[in-house]
Each structure stands twice: as structure tokens, then as C-alpha cells.
């Protein structure tokens, strides 16, 4: 059985800075689910927020499915991950420029964010925002295993 995270720890982990992998069912029935890396925003107890182009395959699949999943991980030892899945609660069209700026500043240093926002200003009229309420959580935190292995190594 995987070592899971308590509720508060999983919410904080999801709120930390990670690139998420968004999963959406491909309702066309001919392919596996769509999995793509995305920037996202989340505050503990709130909704997962992602933005994408209005006419992208991602947006079309999200609208058709009405739900999505997001997985984030820490690739450093001890490995940890949080995966959430739930219904889309709202779609904002077009994207809110304040939220777009906040997400850019979350992922980029101030100078990079400024340059990115200037270079992609046209996306303000092409992007939309999806909000999802996490219903199902899957988590793992291998810190306990790592500590156990470290202790075993010391006694040998």
C-alpha cells in the first residue's frame, strides 16, 4: 500500500509550485486520454485553475468531458505526488488578465514574466479559464520509506 498524505499536507503540496499534467478523456473514442503539461493555480480548499486556447483540442475535450484530472509530483527524493480529479465548475471566456498575469508570475521570475506577458498579449483574447473542484485525491509520500531505508542502512 502506498504511503498517502494527510489532507492538509496534500492540499499544501498541490498549492506548491509544480508543473501539472492535465488529463482529459478523449471523447472521440479512438485514442487514449489526453495528457499535457500545464501551468495551474490552486489554493488549499479551492479549485484547480488552468488556462488554454479556446479552440485547442484540450479545450474541446475538457468541454466534452466536463471534468479533468491533474497530477503533480516532486521528482526529488523522497518522491511525492498528488493527483486530483473532479468536475469543471466554470469556464471563463475570455481569460481574466489579472489571473493570467498571476500565473505567469507564479512560474517565471519577474523579468521573464514581464517579457512573456508582452510576447503573448494576443492570448488574452484567445485563452479561456477552466476551474475544477477536486473530488477524488490520490497521493503518495515516500518519506517514511526513505527514513526506514536510511535507518536500515545505519544498523547494517
UniProtKB/TrEMBL annotation:
Keyword Oxidoreductase listed: yes
Keyword Plastid carried by entry: no
Transmembrane parts of this sequence: none
Pfam family, one: Pyridox_ox_2
Gene3D superfamilies: Electron Transport, Fmn-binding Protein, Chain A
Keyword annotations: Oxidoreductase
Top-level taxon in the UniProt lineage: Bacteria
Name listed for the protein in its UniProt record: Pyridoxamine 5'-phosphate oxidase family protein
Source organism (scientific name): Streptomyces blastmyceticus
Amino acid at each position: 500500500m502506498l504511503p498517502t498524505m494527510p489532507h492538509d499536507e496534500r492540499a499544501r503540496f498541490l498549492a506548491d509550485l509544480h508543473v501539472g499534467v492535465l488529463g482529459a478523456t478523449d471523447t472521440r473514442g479512438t485514442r487514449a486520454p489526453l495528457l499535457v503539461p500545464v501551468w495551474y493555480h490552486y489554493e488549499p480548499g479551492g479549485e484547480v485553475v488552468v488556462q488554454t486556447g479556446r479552440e485547442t483540442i484540450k479545450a474541446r475535450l475538457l468541454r466534452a468531458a466536463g471534468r479533468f484530472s491533474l497530477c503533480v509530483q516532486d521528482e526529488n527524493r523522497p518522491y511525492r505526488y498528488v493527483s486530483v480529479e473532479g468536475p469543471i465548475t466554470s469556464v471563463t471566456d475570455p481569460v481574466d488578465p489579472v489571473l493570467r498575469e498571476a500565473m505567469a508570475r507564479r512560474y517565471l521570475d519577474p523579468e521573464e514574466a514581464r517579457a512573456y506577458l508582452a510576447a503573448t498579449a494576443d492570448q488574452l483574447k484567445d485563452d479561456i479559464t477552466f476551474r475544477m473542484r477536486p473530488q477524488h485525491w490520490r497521493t503518495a509520500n515516500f518519506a517514511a520509506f526513505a527514513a526506514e531505508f536510511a535507518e536500515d542502512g545505519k544498523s547494517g
